[in-house]
Specification:
Helix content is 39%, strand content 19%. By secondary structure, the chain is α/β, with parallel strands linked by helices. The chain folds into two domains: 233 residues, Aldehyde Dehydrogenase, Chain A, domain 1 (3-Layer(aba) Sandwich), CATH 3.40.605; 192 residues, Aldehyde Dehydrogenase, Chain A, domain 2. The strands form seven sheets. The chain has a seven-stranded mixed beta sheet with strand order 12-15-16-11-10-18-19, with helices on both faces. A five-stranded parallel beta sheet has the order 7-6-5-8-9, sandwiched between helices. A three-stranded antiparallel beta sheet has the order 3-4-23, with no helix packed on it. α13 links the parallel β18 and β19. α9 packs across α10. It binds nicotinamide-adenine-dinucleotide. Nicotinamide-adenine-dinucleotide binds next to α7 and α8. Its EC number is 1.2.1.3. Belongs to the aldehyde dehydrogenase family. This is aldehyde dehydrogenase (NAD(+)). Homotetramer.
């Protein structure tokens, strides 16, 4: 069976109508072999504008549905995702090139956030606050916000939608999804799974959950529309630099989940066996195409020679292969542009004095597929390409000797997503986690930078955009907070002792 045939049978089993992925002008490809696997009909800007109107109408009805009842829809979505896990996970592997376990893991993440959101639907708590006025009560209530535009990146083609959609739906918000143009098929499949949950739920407002297939121009419709209350945009910092100011210009709300340039710090006391494994997964897993991929590694000079040669050997021997046919740990890059960006970064690293191990193309999957051996680059200093995110498996390794200085270097890049320290020293650990430590949204100890669970709030600082989604209290970003003061007395005292008596 060809990859296109397998893709077709998966899409049909998942419930996608053939006219959604056949016969259209928008080609979609699998990075596994570079083969075309779909021909979709893209949505138009006018169609996107109409979708916004439908979402705005749906909001008026959905916001009045009690939150636990809204949670029931998400519970059913979780059930349908469980039933679809094998097929959807396989489709993720085909479309994004992930290993089978990572493809399935991504669907598991969707299921996990559904479970979380179902519980949340009964816990959208507000506070009761002490008031200075007698006979008064003050409280906070949380209300649905409005339609949420979800713009997603290719590398987590379905999980990021679920992170947003599960929360938005229980919070009372319709969802408009603009998936990456590189991964439209998994988006269609996810919507088909949602449609089954919706059918079991019963009557739902039209336009509660919609998908827009196409390029950035459709995302721009969402970004520009005042009826889209929140833009949750995941992708490059380049994209965020455009989207963020545009949403702000109309006083919209945004959650920006942008690029990372994540680092690990290996200390003299580190468990080096553990650090080796954590760094290998963090830096080479998903072929370096996670926002949380470890891209920089600072190794204490006393353990450099004990760790780095072992890492170089791991890089030389890690299995690279077709994720659909092998158990290889490293699959393909998404496309030719990613390969070229990687080679350009390695050229720049050499020019900056780096010693490059690996990094060359591996002939797997045909001429339109881009498999590479991950690159480990020993750098004399943190300069040139080390300061930027290149979305490919490159790990820049540097020595350090003074703890305060390595923290400075750790924080001296634009992005601020994820970080980790490998140490058995209590002082180093606590300093790394303190206000004077890592400046990232995620700071870990003795685990790598990637592989977050849904229970915590996910996101990062600085050029990563400052947004938070998924667990903890990230739901507050999807709701409108109202402070209510209720006077149950027969007087009208003013706060701060202000007097304003009229006769
Ligand atoms: P990308 O920025 O090229 O595209 C992301 C999405 O933005 C796509 O859907 C694209 O169509 C859309 N888009 C692009 N320009 C737009 C515009 N002007 N207006 C509206 N929408 C626009 O990113 P990518 O290559 O798909 O993904 C890789 C990047 O995403 C990396 O930088 C990675 O670090 C980042 N990422 C971040 C997170 C996170 O949570 N912080 C998660 C995954 C990926």
């Amino acid at each position: 069976m060809t990859l296109r045939d397998e893709t077709k049978s998966l899409l049909l089993r998942l419930g996608v109508a053939p006219d959604r992925f056949e016969g259209g002008a928008m080609a979609s490809f699998s990075p596994v072999s570079g083969a075309q696997v779909g021909a979709l009909t893209p949505d138009t800007a006018e169609g996107a504008a109409a979708a916004v109107e439908r979402a705005a109408t749906a909001f008026r009805a959905w916001r009045m549905v009690p939150a636990p009842r809204r949670g029931e829809l998400v519970r059913l979505l979780g059930e349908e995702l469980r039933a679809a896990k094998a097929d959807l996970g396989r489709l993720v592997s085909i479309e994004a090139g992930k290993s089978p376990s990572e493809g399935l893991g991504e669907v598991q993440e969707m299921i996990d956030i559904c479970d979380f959101a179902v519980g949340l639907s009964r816990q959208l708590y507000g506070l009761t606050i002490a008031t200075e006025r007698p006979g008064h009560r003050m409280m906070e209530t949380w209300h649905p916000l409005g339609p949420v535009g979800v713009i997603t990146a290719f590398n987590f083609p379905v999980a990021v939608w679920a992170w947003n959609a599960a929360l938005a739906l229980v919070c009372g918000d319709p969802v408009l999804w603009k998936p990456s143009e590189k991964t439209p098929l998994t988006a269609l499949a996810s919507m088909a799974v949602f449609a089954r949950a919706a059918a079991r739920f019963g009557a739902l407002p039209e336009g509660l959950a919609q998908v827009l297939i196409g390029g950035p121009e459709l995302g721009e419709v969402l970004v520009e529309s005042p009826k889209v209350a929140l833009i949750s945009a995941t992708g490059s910092t380049r994209m965020g630099r455009i989207v963020g100011p545009r949403v702000a210009a109309r006083f919209g709300r945004s959650i920006l989940e942008l690029g990372g340039n994540n680092a690990g710090v290996v200390c003299a006391s580190a468990d080096l066996d553990m650090a080796l494994r954590a760094v290998a997964f963090g830096a080479m897993g998903t072929a370096g195409q996670r926002c949380t991929t470890m891209r920089r590694l600072f190794v204490h000079e006393s353990v450099y020679d004990a760790l780095v040669p072992r890492l170089v050997r791991a890089y030389a021997s890690v299995s690279i292969g077709n994720p659909l046919e092998t158990n290889a740990l490293v699959g393909p890059l998404i496309d030719r542009a990613a390969y070229e960006a990687m080679q350009a970064a390695l050229t720049a690293a050499r020019a900056a004095g780096g010693t490059v191990h690996g990094g060359s193309r591996v002939e797997i999957g045909g001429e339109d597929a881009y498999y590479v051996r991950p690159a480990l680059v020993e750098m004399p200093a943190q300069t040139g390409p080390v300061l930027e995110e290149t979305f490919a498996p490159i790990l820049y390794v540097m020595r350090w000797s003074a703890f305060d200085a390595v923290i400075e270097d750790h924080n001296a890049v634009g992005a601020g997503l994820s970080s980790s320290i490998f140490t058995l020293d209590l002082r180093e650990m606590e300093q790394f986690l303190s206000a004077a430590g890592s400046d990232c949204g995620i700071a870990n100890v003795n685990i790598g930078t990637s592989g977050a669970e849904i229970g915590g709030a996910f996101g990062g600082e600085k050029e990563t955009g400052g947004g938070r989604e998924s667990g903890s209290d990230a739901w507050k970003g999807y709701m409108r907070r109202a402070t209510n003061t209720i006077n149950f007395s027969r007087e009208l005292p003013l706060a701060q002792g202000v007097v304003f008596d009229i006769d």
